[in-house]
Write a structure and sequence with these properties.
Layout: H1 2-8, H2 15-38, H3 45-75, H4 86-117, E1 122-123, E2 127-128, H5 137-172, H6 183-196
Antiparallel strand pairs: 1-2
Helix pairs in contact: 2-3, 3-4, 4-5
Length: 197
């Protein structure tokens, strides 16, 4: 059964998987610093706009995470790169699964915390999310703290994941980074690495 499952796997990530990966990455890399800055700003229009943008981008991340899972189910996922060590394979699998889980948990916990606070979550001014839990200050404090902790966990895992990818791309130069790069960027990386050798 395992052999059959391995043979059925695609050789490469689909173009949709690659582009979704990088779009989600850009959204996450935008929301993390927004989350750190917005609480430190004085109350006013700038803070309100940053809160709205942070929430809107979080909802976008949740929608893209759903789409990403659907694309992975439809197009499949290639087997881990053969050149990875056992440690690298375990670490990368753990990072991928943790990141995917956080892509769902962080926005959902954030949405629930805003509901408990009874703040409306407007998504880029296009529509407002429905309230799913009743107002409750104690629940808000718990969910807000959980969102903060999960945000730091996301930042840590993203940094480790990015560090590993850069190591493979520019130090080991083993082609692992290219597996998730859209073709045009993969060719650019090959050219840069080729000149560096």
């Amino acid at each position: 059964m395992t052999g059959m499952a391995t043979r059925d796997r695609p050789e490469h990530y689909s173009a949709a998987s690659k582009w979704l990966h990088w779009i989600v990455a850009l959204c996450v890399l935008a929301t993390i610093p927004m989350g750190l800055v917005m609480d430190r700003l004085p109350e006013g229009d700038l803070q309100n706009r940053l809160f709205d943008l942070h929430r809107s981008t979080g909802v976008l991340v949740l929608a893209l995470a759903v789409l990403r899972v659907a694309v992975r189910r439809f197009s499949g996922v290639p087997a881990p790169a053969k050149m990875l060590t056992t440690f690298e394979r375990v670490a990368s699998t753990a990072a991928h699964h943790t990141l995917l889980l956080l892509l769902f948990l962080l926005p959902l916990v954030g949405w629930a915390s805003m509901d408990a606070y009874r703040a409306d979550v407007s998504v880029f001014g296009l529509f407002t999310l429905p309230h799913v839990i009743p107002q409750n200050d104690a629940v808000y404090k718990i969910l807000s703290a959980a969102h903060w902790i999960l945000g730091w966990l996301m930042a840590f895992v993203v940094a480790a994941h990015a560090g590993g990818a850069l190591m493979h791309g520019f130090i080991k130069r083993d082609g692992v980074l290219n597996r998730m790069l859209p073709d045009v960027f993969g060719r650019m990386l090959d050219a840069v690495v080729g000149r560096a050798r």
